[in-house]
Amino acid sequence: MAALDGLVRELALYEREPDAVEATPQDLHAALFDPGARVRALVAEVEEDGAWVVAGTAISFTTYSTWTGRHGTWLEDLFVQPRHRGLGLGRALLAALAAEAVASGHRRLEWSVLDWNTPAQAVYTAIGAQPQEEWTRWRLDGAGLEALAASAGAAAPGGTGGAGA
Questions:
Q1: What residues make up the domain containing 66?
Q2: Is residue 146 part of a domain?
Q3: Which pLDDT score, from 0 to 100, does residue 156 have?
Q4: pLDDT on residue 97
Q5: Which of 3, 129, 146, 160 could form a disulfide with 54 if both were Cys (CB 3.0 to 4.6 A apart)?
Q6: Rounded mean pLDDT of 137-153?
Q7: What per-residue confidence (pLDDT) applies to 45?
Q8: Are the C-beta atoms of 61 and 37 separated by less than 8 Å?
Q9: What is the CATH number of the domain that holds 129?
Q10: Residue 38 domain flag
Q11: Of 41, 44, 113, 45, whose CA–CA distance to 73 is shortest?
Q12: Which residues are catalytic?
């Protein structure tokens, strides 16, 4: 877990959010290996000084599309250490994840990429992926998430908290 935790922290640094990682190695272990785990991680290894070391990862989970009526795969993180880039590890991780998705009957493999990350965008374009420019990703977290959750019982007429909005 230490290698995977290290990659997550390197990714946060690369994405200019070095203090954003709250997950611990224990959190990662639980997400990947506890009963009912819903997260998967693929790793890429390279040989360095006669030993195999983890050089990259693809962390994903299953999604569902009401439009296709099928599950899909969401790629949460793809990261290859800078010193190991150019070896095809990112493409290999994506290909392995795509193979898993197809074998599972998933119809989509989707992810987000930062606007400024043009090296990653070039890789994604090279494998045939296309940006979904008409969609804007939204997030509710922290105090906003807590406030909305607290209003659940009173949100609907009659106080039922229904989801019909």
A1: 2-135
A2: no
A3: 59
A4: 97
A5: 3
A6: 93
A7: 98
A8: no
A9: 3.40.630.30
A10: yes
A11: 41
A12: 124
Residue 151 lies in a domain: no
Count of domains forming the chain: 1
Per-residue pLDDT, averaged over 80-107, amounts to 97
Residue 162 lies in a domain: no
Three-class DSSP labels, the chain: CHHHHHHHHHHHHHCCCCCCCCCCHHHHHHHHHCCCCCEEEEEEEEEECCEEEEEEEEEEEEEEECCCCEEEEEEEEEEECHHHCCCCHHHHHHHHHHHHHHHCCCCCEEECCCCCCHHHHHHHHHCCCCCCCCCCCCCCCHHHHHHHHHCHHHCCHHHCCCCCC
Which pLDDT does position 157 carry in this prediction? 59
113 contacts: CB under 8 Å, gap ≥ 6: 120, 121, 124
pTM recorded for the entire structure: 0.87
